């Protein structure tokens, strides 16, 4: 496990880059190659990924507080770049939604025969125009209800993602605390072991000294008995 003060920041930045790359690939797809519903589904996924990217930026802002001052400036620049990328993709997503809405409106108008600027009164009767207007209004209401439903689903998914991220952060912080505790315990055990080794050497020296003294005493006693 990397315990450097920039490890989590780098991890969040890597996740952020993967998310914005995915967003870019979805937004850069030619809309003509997709149906309206496929494009809407892609933009909904973009909205979810933008929420995830926003959370990654928030986590990076938190982690940058613990980065040493000696290298903090370069990480602040990286954070600013990430924020700029996020803002740019949010604008691109909003523009894509607007363009899709205009395209859907034009297609609906064309299918329903709604009057255009070239034919302000339209080719049909007032009753037909009234019915067409009612249909367009109902279609707009249905689209609004769909948008509200999608917004609620996105909000629920975003809340779940935020909860998961907070849980993961707590797990990482708990792992950090556990690692610090383990390091402290290892240091204490190492100190205790060193003391035990020193005592063992001291006891060996004392034992050897006693043996030497006993040998000398035995030698003296034997010498005295032999020569006296």
TrEMBL record:
It is found in: Membrane. GO terms for molecular function: SNAP receptor activity; SNARE binding. Pfam families: V-SNARE, V-SNARE_C. Residues 129-196 form the T-SNARE coiled-coil homology domain. Keywords: Coiled coil, Membrane, Protein transport, Transmembrane, Transmembrane helix, Transport. The keyword Transferase does not apply. It comes from the Eukaryota. The chain crosses the membrane at residues 205-223. One of its GO terms (cellular component) is endoplasmic reticulum membrane. It is a single-pass type IV membrane protein. Residues 43-92 form a coiled coil. The keyword Membrane applies. Belongs to the VTI1 family. This is t-SNARE coiled-coil homology domain-containing protein. It comes from Serpula lacrymans var. lacrymans (strain S7.3).
């Amino acid at each position: 496990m990397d315990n450097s003060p920039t490890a989590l920041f780098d991890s969040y930045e890597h996740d952020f880059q993967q998310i914005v790359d995915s967003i870019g690939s979805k937004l850069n797809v030619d809309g003509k190659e997709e149906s309206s519903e496929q494009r809407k589904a892609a933009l909904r996924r973009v909205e979810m990924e933008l929420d995830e990217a926003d959370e990654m930026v928030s986590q990076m802002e938190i982690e940058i507080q613990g980065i040493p001052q000696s290298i903090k400036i370069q990480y602040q620049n990286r954070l600013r770049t990430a924020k700029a990328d996020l803002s740019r993709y949010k604008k691109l997503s909003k523009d894509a939604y607007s363009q899709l809405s205009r395209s859907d409106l034009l297609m609906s108008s064309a299918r329903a025969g709604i009057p255009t600027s070239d034919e302000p009164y339209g080719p049909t009767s007032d009753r037909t125009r009234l019915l067409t207007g009612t249909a367009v209004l109902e279609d707009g209401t249905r689209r609004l209800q769909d948008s509200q439903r999608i917004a609620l689903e996105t909000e629920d998914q975003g809340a779940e993602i935020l909860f998961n991220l907070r849980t993961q952060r707590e797990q990482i912080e708990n792992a950090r605390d556990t690692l610090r505790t383990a390091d402290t315990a290892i240091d204490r055990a190492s100190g205790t072991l060193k003391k035990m080794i020193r005592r063992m050497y001291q006891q060996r020296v004392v034992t050897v000294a006693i043996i030497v003294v006993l040998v000398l005493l035995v030698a003296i006693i034997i010498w005295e008995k032999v020569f006296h």
